[in-house]
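Schema walk-through. Below, the input block comes first and the output block second. Nothing else is stored per chain. Lengths vary across the set, and this one has 272 residues.
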Amino acid sequence: MDDYIVRFPAARPRRASLLAVTLCAAPYLLRAQAPAAPPTPPPAVPDWALPGSATHKQVPPPADFHRPSQNFDTPIGVFEGQSDIGSAVVPGSASYDAGTKRYTINSAGYNIWYSRDEFRYLWKKMSGDVSLAADVTFPNPDGYGDRKAVLVIRQNLEDDSREAMIGQHGAGMVHMAQRPEKGANLKDMQYRFGGMLANVRAKRIGIEKRGDSIAIFISLQGEPMQQLGPPINLHFDGPFYVGIGFCSHLPDKSDTAVLSNVLLENSAGKVR
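--- output ---
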């Protein structure tokens, strides 16, 4: 009887300890075996954002439709940062080759138009007068004809910012446009140049801010830059954003533009 009493307590704690360890470990084992959450699908492309075609017309976005821009304060070449303005459903990217002085910009985006924009933007904060110019090429000859490489002055990085821009389209057209107030529709200034029918494409484009006067410039084949059309008047509070960008004009498909030999000066009269 004495032997039994001594042996029984000695064995029992061992069984209890093993059971306790198993119970404590069970939640961790179950958690480790839980299936991974499915990836988040990309945002759907609204019907209004689809590009124009024989069977579809692109129309302005709803007045209350916005996406916050994704901003990256990482210097690239002469620019202080870059942004996916309006956050297209496919994120953009950009790189700079100091040897060739080439900025390669990849971007989707339904448009730079109407009351809001979607494009990749390389920017610098500035005040006062500005001169900006660049050579433009499109590596993909089969891209959408209305894709745009742009030189832009913007009040801020929101998708509906006040702005003035010169745009060079994939089909060759060059023109100026402005959004005179935040949230307003972009206005085409209607003095256009070039395009597919003329079979002319500018080699270099430029924009100049002199006070509240904004003018655009072109060079067809490398000759000195010439002003295209009269200037517009648009006020920007300093600091504002100045830079280059690109939009594929396809809401969910990225394309590429190359802007090279970029000139950016904090004074007027320097476009060349």
